[in-house]
Amino acid sequence: MEPAAFASAMRALRSALLLLVLVAPAAGDVVVLKDGRKIEGEVVRRTATEVVVRTAAGEVSFPAAGVAEVLEQKTREEEYRDRLEACQSGEDFYRLGLWCREARLPQRAAKLFARAIEIDPDHAGARQELGFVRHDGEWMTPAERDRRVAAATAAAMQEKGFVLHDGRWVTPEEKAHLEKGEVQHEGRWIPKAEAMRLQGLAEFAGEWLPIPEARAREAAAGAAATAGTPLEFHIDSLALVCGTIPAEELAAIGAGIGAGRAWFDAEWLVPPGRGLFGGLLAEFYVFAEDEPYLRTIPYLAARSFHIPRGWAEAVSRTHGFVWTDPIAISSARQRGRNRTDLVGQCYHHLGHLMLNRLGFEGTLLPPWYDEGVAALTELHCHGQNAVFCRSGAGGGEGSASGRIGVAFDWNVFRDGTWRSRLAREVREGRLEPFDKLARREFGQLELLDIAAAMAIVEWLDSQGAGTLLRFHRGLRTGAPRAPLRVLADGRARQEYFDRAFRLAVGLDHRQADEAWRRWLLNR
């Protein structure tokens, strides 16, 4: 560019940039207030009582007593004009642009950066300030860079014989498989659904989830449809907790279930995780109202292969029910109780589920042992016992008070004094021999029997790691065929328990009966 033309262009640019500051005051006073503020402008009047300053926004008056000093110096606008007049090179305009950016004048800064690259098209600093990137030796916008990269990639992939499918470059053969909905699994092209299943996933509501979670969500949706009301639910790695109480309460029950599993796993030497429940989630249904509980009975019953005749009618009269095969399921309703008792029933049912799933092969466990462990589970989950079970018609299980013994009442379970009360019964000779306990069905268990069962289980646990598991395995061996739980023949029943106690602690059932009583009295 000719010197004269360049000078003319520079004057035009300065004129354009100066339009941005026409509203600035002509003079350069700075009024410093005693509170620390600084006002730039022109002092147009100063008296003993006030100082008047003309600013870009108009005249402003300040009490003279509040003014610390008036400085005659360049305002920011004046300094900007002086700097602009001195600009010659691209670097000069770039530096002034940085000054404007620091002074929070972004529009001026952008114009100055643009002027810098007009003079010096390869000025890296100004280019970067304006958002340009360097690609293949050229400055361009990121969008242009991305367009060029995409075009180059497409050309290279097409040259290699690849085609585009859903944003990915694949071979024509792969595209043909993908368009048929197939995916590659271990070197084979198979339908996507089959591949997902091989990876342990199942589809629910259009989403592929781990099979246990998908099945649990299906169960919750089916229960809600059957109940005729929306259900809240909580899902974790061990259980689905679903019902008509608030979600935060369901989550709290889920946490209690986790604590119960941790206790049981440690005492019975069970590997943690879903293996105990056949790789699926245990399902707990919790209802504050009667109708959803009653409506879901047929739905839940249809998911078991072993529901006896009359079972549904029987459990419709109880507080709840539980079974383990093929899915571990608990259902409970509040029905006149407080919420603590409803939650306690979930934990009590958890005990039944865990114990009966352990080594399950179709037989059932002795009622005293089954109930004793369930009661201990509830105790470990929330510190008291509010629920006990007894048999209903057809073998269903539900909450009931049991028959209160003469010297034993319900409150000793709620206040935690049941062990001392049981010890008194033992000391005074009112507790029957073990064989009497071993012959009782669920419906015949009194509160005193349940306390004795809990104590026997605790005694076994005190004999060292693995004792409970050995005893449990002994009970599984030779157990009567379901639905029987109790051997009616006295000799067979005694031999059955002799075998279990010997396997666990090396004693027959009479010696074990004496040993746990001594242990209780010496606690």
Describe the protein.
This protein is of the alpha+beta class. 49% of the residues lie in helices and 18% in strands. The strands form 7 sheets. A 5-stranded antiparallel beta sheet has the order 4-3-2-1-5, with no helix packed on it. The protein has a 5-stranded mixed beta sheet with strand order 14-15-16-18-17, with helices on both faces. A hairpin with a 2-residue loop joins strand 10 and strand 11. The chain starts with a helix and ends with a helix. The N terminus is likely disordered.
Structure in a nutshell:
The protein has 523 residues and is α+β, with helices and mostly antiparallel strands. The protein has 21 helices and 20 strands.
Characteristic key phrases:
523 residues; alpha+beta; 5-stranded antiparallel sheet; 21 helices; 20 strands
Q: Identify low-pLDDT runs.
A: 1-7, 9-27, 391-406
Number of helices: 21
Ends distance:
106 Å
- What class would the helix/strand composition place it in? alpha+beta
Task: Give the helix level as a range of percent.
Answer: 40-55%
Largest sheet: 5 strands, antiparallel
Please provide the count of β strands: 20
Shape: elongated
Strand content: 15-25%
Largest beta sheet: what is the strand line-up? Answer: 4-3-2-1-5
Question: What is the mean pLDDT?
Answer: 88
The radius of gyration is 42 Å
